[in-house]
Amino acid sequence: MIPAPPISLAVLAPALIVMGAGCLVLLLDLLPPRASKVHLATVALLGVVAALLTSLAAWGGRGRGFRDMVILDNYALFFHVVICYGAALIVLLSIDYLRRSGVESGEYYALVLFSTSGMLLLTSASDLIVVFLAIELMSLSLYVLSGLFKGRRQAGEASMKYFLLGAFASAFLLYGIALLYGATGTTNIDRIAAAAAAAPHDTLLIAGLGLLLVGFGFKISSAPFHMWAPDVYEGAPTSVTALIATGSKAAVFAVLVRLLLSGVRAVQADWTAVLWVLAALTMTLGNVVAIAQSNLKRMLAYSSIAHVGYMLVGLAAGGAAGAGAVLFYLLAYTFTTAGTFGVITLCVRAGEEAVDVRDYAGLGRRHPVLAFALALLLLSLVGIPPLAGFVGKFYLFGAAVRAGFVWLTVLGVLNSAVAAYYYLRVIVTMYMQEPDGQSASVAPSFAGGLALTIAVIGVVLLGLMPAPFVDLAQVAVAPLLR
Amino acid sequence: MTPHVLSIVTLLPLAGALVLTLVPRRLDQVLRVGALIVSLAAFAASIRLYTGFDGSSASYQFEEQVAWMPSLGASYHIGIDGISLLLVLLTTLLMPIALASAWHAIEDRTKEFVIAMLVLETGMVGVFVSLDLFLFLVFWEAMLIPMYFVIGVWGGANRIYAAVKFVLYTMAGSALMLVAILALYYRHGVATGTFTFDVPIVTRWVVPAGLGQNLMFLAFALAFAIKVPLFPFHTWLPDAHVEAPTAGSVILAGVLLKMGTYGFLRFSLPIFPDASLTFGPIVLALAVFGIVYGAWVSTVQPDLKKLVAYSSVSHLGFVMLGIFTLNVQGLVGGVIQMINHGLSTGALFLMVGMIYERRHTRLIADFGGLWKVIPAFSALFLVVVLSSLGLPGLNGFVGEFLILIGAFQTNRGLAALALTGIIFAAVYLLWMYQRVIFGEVTHEENRGLRDLSLREWALIVPLVIFIVWIGVYPTVFTGPTEATVEALIAQVQSKASVALR
Fold first, then answer.
1. In whole angstroms, what is the distance from residue A72 CA to residue A125 CA?
2. Over the stretch B453-465, which tens digit does the pLDDT of each residue have?
């Protein structure tokens, strides 16, 4: 008889809360009032906030459960906080955005919550099987969400492309897991670590790791596995794009860092070389192609590819400094990116979403507060002090220099100078050009405004007072490097 | 002595800007007056720095240090020595003048303008007072953005191109400096066990001579050389100066360029002495080339603002020449010349702006015979022009004379070449003056020009006072600098020899 694994729901609490809220939303959706969905959004928001508070309360603990398949350490909790913040911002942004787009529905919030719970589970997974389950839970919801605008061709393309390529990536992941299992006889990350340390030159291990990197590379949209990102970012509803760009990336980075630093540190030299190339490719490609984009969402898609490249620099640097820098960067990036997409959800032109850079001409004159917020967020993405993006880059590149990757750092800083060009172009349009014809106006939204305010405060706070957050990130990566 | 006076000077403009965000935008007169009061208050506070400054000491004064990121070793550490004192004073003096110069010139989005200018002031003062590399980097980069807006929003026809070029040039330069700062931080940390960005501590450490030091020097030097601008990194400057509104040009020429030369003095020389000696001859050659080149190109400019812009390349070449002579005369001359250039070129841009406001053209060919129409303007313009070309008795002479004495000791050939720059300066400035001011009134539009208004008098007179003061009695200004400069030279020499041994 197979003994049932011990059930320890406490380690799953945050993910379960979000999941439960998702089910509740589905149930409530069947009951009146049917006209408005604000109450569903409220339930979703409460669920995410409850998960956030649960995670904060669990800080410092080290729970394990289900035979070490799930682990709730500070590392996972740090990501819980990042993801819950991101998800909460996105729920806030969605309320008026969805109503305006005419696709308001209960399933939307439920799917966002399911996807979020997948992300939370992913960050605390310490077994590759759970990793796979969580990735699927997260991704399947996102596939559906990205096709939410049923009537639009781009939406169909986005959903289809994301699904097909995502399934492809899942296959790589599974194959990689199978090979790792073959090499080490286990799917548990801790036990993989022991096995890898014992036999670091196992070809099967390296091959499996390579396949896993392909799978993860797809999910975080690192070059050359980034092809889906621009189309999906463009076709998906902007609020969903924000979720894909922030939460899903953070979650996959969580498991990637955990696997590389904790699981296969024994073969660090091998994966470092691969990451070096991936990082250089990803940030260069992202930034260079972003220059040519006139659609703001596509531009941000390439920019987010570039930011993944920067984070890969930190990951390549490895060690506590590199991993801590990646964590801090993800926090900063989540605030900034969620805020940036948030501004887009608030701007309309001729009844449509304002996605062309030219739509923003003269925004600085007509809506100074919103334009200022967008300018601040973009400057943070450029990496101008004293904003979050600057501190994040400083830590990332600092870790890379410390680890001896000076040339990769040089490439990184030159890339951020290139990036300044296309981010500043949006600011140029907003402040220095006058609209020709119709241009974007702002759809008033209290919830959206609140979300933006939180994001902007976060960006400024992380820039001015980074020390406590950096220390938290350092504490969070400590369990990995034992 | 008031505590935290240096912090007050640095952060008051930012605080003022934050307060002004609360003023409704239709009250633009309130915004202008408010910004002017804030900048004057910052100037008043900075005078306390001068009166309280001990000129005989070379150490940092008015130091303040607050922990900021203890785990990283970065702190809010500020302080001034004889070099930064003068630059801070220059900044706080020019800012109210620049704001007042825009009284009528900037009527569109006044609120954003005054806020950008005040934030810019905090950024510039912050660069000069930072004694922490991280803090320095924060101010250095943050300062770009308000300047970018000033050029891009309120500038001339080609403003967007100029603004983007300005930012991209500077960012590309400072990108490598960031890497060098990180490399310096870790090397210092590994060698001494203290990971810190603190400038005095890092400066005390002797960086091992060799490739590492050379690369770090070059990375810093690139960032600073673009800012100065040293030939051949000057191509952003004519665009930015010409397109910027008058107030922007005044600040750009008066203060921003000095951040580059200041960087060489504060970081490159003392931290990388060997590399400074190794690459010194190249810098000297580029500086002299810039002097001559800037002068020649100025001569043929048809546009007044472009002429003044290229003259900056020439004048800043003198500053760089003085700094890299690495002797007391040259360095003191370099520091004084930084101030002089800020005063005279600031004044030149102001006065060009004044006639531009009247005629909406800056082409030399559109003027002529102005003395008959606006004699007061012409007389003051003459003083400023003469100061810029280095007439004895005015400020420009003092700086250039000291620099040439210094350069003569280092390299006679280069000094002789640099000397031709002074002659050419006389050529382009006097020729320009002659065509604009003397002769008959050739354009009917010029007959009706008003002479200086009270506000314009108030803008120019303070600058002229300093121009004459430095020219006649330079000790007041060179005094506080000398001790600092001597200490700097001693430091370079001792460290270079230690490293060579």
1. 8
2. 888 888 899 999 9
The encoded tokens of residue A135 equal 């990735």
Q: In B, residues 17-36, which contact A (CB 8 Å cutoff)? A: 25
Is the pTM higher than 0.90? The answer reads: yes
Closest CA to B155 of B241, B255, B235, B236: B241
A283, A406 contact by CB (below 8 A): no
Q: How far is CA A315 from CA A261, A321, A325, B24, B75, in A?
A: 9, 9, 9, 47, 27
Give the SS3 label for residue A447: helix
Q: Which tokens hold the place of B445?
A: 């539009």
Whether residue A279 contacts residue A213, with contact meaning beta carbons closer than 8 Å, is answered with no
B172 touching chain A per CB within 8 A: yes
Q: Which of A398, A402, A410 faces B176 most closely, judged by CB atoms?
A: A410
Q: In this complex, do B175 and A428 lie within 8 Å of one another by their Cβ atoms?
A: no
What is the largest distance, in Å, between two alpha-carbon atoms of chain A?
75
* Residues of A with Cβ-Cβ distance to B182 under 8 angstroms: 394, 397-398, 401-402, 409
Dihedral sign for Cα A69, A73, A76, A77, please. positive
Q: Which residues of A touch B160 (CB under 8 A)?
A: 428, 432-433
Is residue B478 a contact partner of residue B403, using CB atoms and an 8 Å limit? no
- A352 Cβ contact list (under 8 Å, min separation 6): none
Q: Choose among B153, B171, B182: nearest Cβ to A397.
A: B182
Residue of B nearest to A382 (CA): B171
Q: Specify burial of residue B315 (Cβ count, 10 A radius: 0-12, 13-18, 19+).
A: buried
Q: Which of B68, B69, B179 sits opposite A397 (nearest CB)?
A: B179
Asked if B168's CB is within 8 angstroms of A401's CB, the reply is no
Alpha carbon distance B10, B64 (integer Å): 12
Choose the mutation target among B182, B195, B196, B218 for the interface with A, i.e. most A CBs under 10 Å. B182
**Three-class SS state of A363:** helix
Q: What is the pLDDT of residue A415?
A: 92
* Selection from A469, A296, A320, A454 nearest residue A378 by Cα: A296
Query: For residue range A81-135, what is the model confidence (pLDDT) as tens digits?
Result: 999 999 999 999 999 888 888 888 888 999 999 999 999 999 999 999 999 999 9
DSSP helix/strand/coil, B210 = coil
CA-to-CA distance for A248 and A250, rounded, in angstroms? Answer: 5
Convert B316-329 to b/e letters by CB count within 10 Å (16 or more is b).
Answer: bbbbbbbbbbbbbb
Given a contact cutoff of 8 angstroms between Cβ atoms, the answer to whether A332 and A412 are in contact is: no
CA distances to A206, A475, B261, B279 from B283, rounded to whole Å, are: 51, 47, 12, 6
Give dist(CA B160, CA A430) in Å, integer.
12
Q: Do B138 and A416 touch (CB under 8 A)?
A: no
Chain B: give the shortest CA distance to residue A391, in Å.
Answer: 9
Interface of A with B (CB under 8 A): 364-365, 368, 379, 384-386, 390, 394, 397-398, 401-402, 406, 409-410, 413-414, 416-417, 420-421, 424-425, 428, 431-433, 466-467, 470-471, 474
**Model confidence over A369-419: pLDDT tens digits?**
899 999 999 999 998 888 999 999 999 999 999 888 989 999 999 999 899
* Contact assessment for residue B43 and residue B92, using Cβ atoms and an 8 Å cutoff: yes
Closest CA to A108 of A94, A119, A120, A96: A94
Chain A residues within an 8 Å CB radius of B137: 385, 394
Q: Interhelix angle for A319-346 vs A446-464, to 10°?
A: 150
Of B325, B296, B327, the residue nearest B310 (C-alpha):
B296
